[in-house]
Amino acid sequence: MAEPFDDIFKESKIFANKEILSPHYIPHNLLFRDRQIQEIAKYITPSLRGERGRNLFIYGKTGTGKTSCMKNVIDRVRNLPISKARITYINCRIYNSRYRVLHKIVGDNMPLYAKRGYGMSDIYEKVINWIEEDGKVLVIVLDEIDVVKDLDDLIYTLTRANSDIKAGGITIVGISNKVSFKDDLDPRSLSTLYENELAFSPYDSNELSLILKERIEEGFRKGVVDQSAINLSAAIAAKDSGDARLALKILTKAGEVAEERGLEVVTGVEVQEAAKSAEDEIAYEVINTLPEHQRLIVYAISLLSISGSKYKRLSTEGEMYLFSGDIYDKYVSISRSLEKEPKSSRWYRKYIADLNMQGIILSYESGKGIRGHTKLIKLAYSPERIRDIIEKTLTKGA
């Protein structure tokens, strides 16, 4: 009987450095994102000079390079000889409240005061006094800003702080997958924002192929990845959402399949097998990070897609789509069966726009003659897969 750790120190014949293939790895050279890096740099330059700059909001689907570009800029800023500016990066999935964000700012910049026990007003005063002591500008990067629980309070606090600061200031850089997240803000918070916006488009198949090739050079052994594996990984990811993380995950899993089978080359065959597993993981991550009512809308779409009901309609491209109004009716029914108050049709339309932006659904406006002008919608993932994922999170069936 083989020992369970016999292979732990065995050198891989497929992978050279798996870390290079991780979605968390930030390459020095970000292909196809030079313009976005230059735009971010341009927008935050006034703050780096010690001036009060405009806030910046960055939007784009998952895996389009938003965080990577921002971190690339942050690394460059930290090498600059600046004295009037500081930059703090905050992952709002971890620091998901106003108090936690302010505490992280203190921890990054005033570690002697970074201990529990301070109240909100004390932390706020610490930040204000630290900025005023030499008139510095603090650039706060809030990644996945939309998941902050008390976002209105956070935005209002950070923007209004500029009124309290006598010398220096605060600039916000918000990063979000949801282009309409600001629509959820209270008017008093919106009124304090003065911002630029920057959108990241999804990668296409050719771009993803070149991104994969660059990672393969260091991540895989030389010559072990067939061109068919690169092309297929890129094509699958481009078709789903243009997500570079998905392309990398598919190719990495294909390499693991090849290694388990003792193969010397990773081909399209292994990619095809790895794709479903990788897509399942991505779908699970995406769906489980959605707000409750967006998740219920996606659940409604999955149930109608599976049912084969009269609500289905063939689009001009021959694919099955659903009427937006029928989805809303199903969502309302599900919400009430779960004893939750459904959102209004106005909010529903905003949620649909967010889901489309994130690549979870595909939609287009119908022409005349189909219930007037209406939106036709379909899931970008397998309806059965989405249904199963969401049902695991529900307390009772719809």
What are the SSEs and their pairings?
Blueprint: H1 34-48, E1 55-60, H2 66-77, E2 85-91, H3 98-109, H4 120-132, E3 137-143, H5 151-164, E4 169-176, H6 187-190, E5 195-200, H7 205-219, H8 227-240, H9 244-260, H10 268-288, H11 292-307, E6 312-314, E7 320-323, H12 324-337, H13 345-357, E8 361-365, E9 375-379, H14 383-391
What does this entry look like structurally?
- The protein is of the alpha/beta class.
- The chain has 3 domains: 18-22 and 204-288, Helicase, Ruva Protein, domain 3 (Orthogonal Bundle), CATH 1.10.8; 34-200, P-loop containing nucleotide triphosphate hydrolases (Rossmann fold); 292-391, Orthogonal Bundle (Arc Repressor Mutant, subunit A), CATH 1.10.10.10.
- The chain is 47% helix and 13% strand.
- The chain contains 14 helices and 9 strands.
- The strands form 2 sheets. Strands 2-3-4-1-5 form a 5-stranded parallel sheet, with helices on both faces. Strands 6-7-9-8 form a 4-stranded antiparallel sheet.
- A hairpin with a 5-residue loop joins strand 6 and strand 7 (320-323).
- The termini are far apart.
- The mean pLDDT is 88.
Number of helices: 14
Number of strands: 9
Cα-based radius of gyration, to the nearest Å: 24 Å
List low-confidence stretches.
none
Spell out the helices and strands N to C: HEHEHHEHEHEHHHHHEEHHEEH
What profile does the largest beta sheet have?
5 strands, parallel
Describe this structure in a few short sentences:
The chain has 398 residues and is an alpha/beta fold. It has 14 helices and nine strands. The protein starts with 33 loop residues before the first helix and ends in a 7-residue tail after the last helix.
